[in-house]
Amino acid sequence: MQVLYTASARATGDGRDGHVRTSDDTLDLDLAVPKEMGGAGGAANPEQLFAAGYAACFHSALRVVARRAKADVTDSVVEAEVGIGPNGAGGFGLTVGLVVDLPAVERAAAEQLVEQAHQVCPYSNATRGNIDVTLTVRTAA
Protein backbone atom coordinates (compact mmCIF):
# COMPACT_ATOMS: atom_id res chain seq x y z
CA MET A 1 0.00 0.00 0.00
CA GLN A 2 1.25 3.47 -0.86
CA VAL A 3 0.82 5.65 2.24
CA LEU A 4 -0.69 9.04 1.32
CA TYR A 5 -0.80 10.53 4.81
CA THR A 6 0.35 9.56 8.29
CA ALA A 7 -1.23 10.94 11.45
CA SER A 8 0.80 10.99 14.64
CA ALA A 9 -0.49 11.44 18.18
CA ARG A 10 1.17 11.17 21.55
CA ALA A 11 -0.43 10.05 24.80
CA THR A 12 1.01 11.20 28.12
CA GLY A 13 -0.06 11.04 31.74
CA ASP A 14 -2.07 8.11 33.02
CA GLY A 15 -3.48 6.59 29.82
CA ARG A 16 -7.23 7.06 29.91
CA ASP A 17 -6.78 9.77 32.54
CA GLY A 18 -4.05 11.50 30.60
CA HIS A 19 -3.59 13.76 27.63
CA VAL A 20 -3.36 13.32 23.86
CA ARG A 21 -1.90 15.66 21.30
CA THR A 22 -1.28 15.31 17.59
CA SER A 23 2.12 16.16 16.18
CA ASP A 24 0.67 19.18 14.36
CA ASP A 25 -1.19 20.40 17.50
CA THR A 26 -4.61 20.38 15.79
CA LEU A 27 -5.88 17.98 18.46
CA ASP A 28 -4.84 18.65 22.06
CA LEU A 29 -7.15 17.05 24.64
CA ASP A 30 -7.30 15.93 28.22
CA LEU A 31 -8.74 12.45 28.66
CA ALA A 32 -10.85 11.01 31.46
CA VAL A 33 -12.36 7.64 32.20
CA PRO A 34 -16.16 7.88 31.68
CA LYS A 35 -18.33 7.83 34.79
CA GLU A 36 -19.96 4.63 33.44
CA MET A 37 -16.58 2.93 33.80
CA GLY A 38 -15.90 4.28 37.31
CA GLY A 39 -14.02 7.41 36.32
CA ALA A 40 -14.61 11.10 36.85
CA GLY A 41 -15.77 11.81 33.29
CA GLY A 42 -15.80 15.40 32.13
CA ALA A 43 -13.23 15.00 29.36
CA ALA A 44 -12.86 13.12 26.09
CA ASN A 45 -12.11 9.40 26.00
CA PRO A 46 -10.63 7.07 23.37
CA GLU A 47 -14.01 5.62 22.42
CA GLN A 48 -15.35 9.10 21.60
CA LEU A 49 -12.29 9.80 19.46
CA PHE A 50 -12.70 6.48 17.65
CA ALA A 51 -16.43 7.15 17.11
CA ALA A 52 -15.73 10.62 15.69
CA GLY A 53 -13.06 9.30 13.33
CA TYR A 54 -15.15 6.35 12.17
CA ALA A 55 -18.25 8.52 11.58
CA ALA A 56 -16.29 11.06 9.52
CA CYS A 57 -14.43 8.42 7.53
CA PHE A 58 -17.56 6.37 6.82
CA HIS A 59 -19.45 9.50 5.75
CA SER A 60 -16.66 10.31 3.32
CA ALA A 61 -16.73 6.76 1.91
CA LEU A 62 -20.51 7.01 1.59
CA ARG A 63 -20.21 10.22 -0.41
CA VAL A 64 -17.65 8.58 -2.72
CA VAL A 65 -19.87 5.60 -3.51
CA ALA A 66 -22.94 7.85 -3.82
CA ARG A 67 -21.14 10.08 -6.31
CA ARG A 68 -20.23 7.00 -8.39
CA ALA A 69 -23.86 5.85 -8.28
CA LYS A 70 -25.16 9.37 -8.97
CA ALA A 71 -27.24 9.11 -5.79
CA ASP A 72 -28.50 12.17 -3.91
CA VAL A 73 -27.05 12.06 -0.41
CA THR A 74 -28.14 15.59 0.47
CA ASP A 75 -28.59 15.96 4.24
CA SER A 76 -26.96 12.58 4.91
CA VAL A 77 -25.67 11.97 8.43
CA VAL A 78 -23.51 9.20 9.89
CA GLU A 79 -23.47 8.55 13.61
CA ALA A 80 -21.03 6.07 15.14
CA GLU A 81 -21.65 4.51 18.53
CA VAL A 82 -18.62 2.79 20.05
CA GLY A 83 -19.08 0.50 23.02
CA ILE A 84 -16.41 -1.00 25.26
CA GLY A 85 -16.65 -3.92 27.64
CA PRO A 86 -14.99 -7.11 28.90
CA ASN A 87 -14.30 -9.61 26.11
CA GLY A 88 -14.56 -12.72 28.30
CA ALA A 89 -10.86 -13.54 27.89
CA GLY A 90 -9.44 -11.16 30.49
CA GLY A 91 -9.27 -8.13 28.21
CA PHE A 92 -11.64 -5.64 26.68
CA GLY A 93 -13.32 -5.39 23.30
CA LEU A 94 -15.20 -2.85 21.25
CA THR A 95 -18.47 -2.80 19.37
CA VAL A 96 -19.51 -0.30 16.73
CA GLY A 97 -22.96 0.74 15.57
CA LEU A 98 -23.15 2.95 12.50
CA VAL A 99 -26.46 4.74 12.00
CA VAL A 100 -26.73 6.26 8.53
CA ASP A 101 -29.47 8.74 7.66
CA LEU A 102 -30.15 9.03 3.91
CA PRO A 103 -33.39 11.02 3.69
CA ALA A 104 -33.31 11.51 -0.10
CA VAL A 105 -32.65 7.87 -1.06
CA GLU A 106 -35.09 4.96 -1.41
CA ARG A 107 -34.53 2.23 1.20
CA ALA A 108 -33.12 -0.49 -1.10
CA ALA A 109 -30.71 1.92 -2.77
CA ALA A 110 -29.72 3.40 0.61
CA GLU A 111 -28.92 -0.05 2.02
CA GLN A 112 -26.81 -0.82 -1.06
CA LEU A 113 -24.90 2.47 -0.74
CA VAL A 114 -24.20 1.84 2.94
CA GLU A 115 -22.95 -1.69 2.26
CA GLN A 116 -20.69 -0.38 -0.53
CA ALA A 117 -19.36 2.34 1.79
CA HIS A 118 -18.66 -0.37 4.38
CA GLN A 119 -16.41 -2.09 1.80
CA VAL A 120 -14.60 1.18 0.90
CA CYS A 121 -14.14 2.83 4.33
CA PRO A 122 -10.65 2.33 5.80
CA TYR A 123 -12.08 2.08 9.33
CA SER A 124 -14.48 -0.65 8.21
CA ASN A 125 -11.64 -2.48 6.49
CA ALA A 126 -9.46 -2.21 9.61
CA THR A 127 -12.17 -3.45 11.97
CA ARG A 128 -13.61 -6.22 9.77
CA GLY A 129 -13.25 -9.54 11.57
CA ASN A 130 -12.05 -7.82 14.76
CA ILE A 131 -14.99 -5.73 15.95
CA ASP A 132 -18.71 -6.34 15.58
CA VAL A 133 -20.03 -3.52 13.39
CA THR A 134 -23.79 -3.08 13.02
CA LEU A 135 -25.15 -0.98 10.16
CA THR A 136 -28.50 0.76 10.54
CA VAL A 137 -30.00 2.66 7.61
CA ARG A 138 -32.70 5.30 8.06
CA THR A 139 -34.52 6.87 5.14
CA ALA A 140 -37.49 9.15 4.71
CA ALA A 141 -38.45 7.43 1.45
UniProtKB/TrEMBL annotation:
InterPro entries the record matches: KH_dom-like_a/b, OHR, OsmC/Ohr_fam, OsmC/Ohrsf
Coiled-coil annotated spans: none
GO terms for biological process, alphabetical: response to oxidative stress
Gene3D superfamilies documented for this protein: 2.20.25.10, 3.30.300.20
NCBIfam families assigned to the protein according to its UniProt record, in alphabetical order: organ_hyd_perox (TIGR03561)
Family named by the database record: Belongs to the OsmC/Ohr family.
Protein name in the entry: Organic hydroperoxide resistance protein
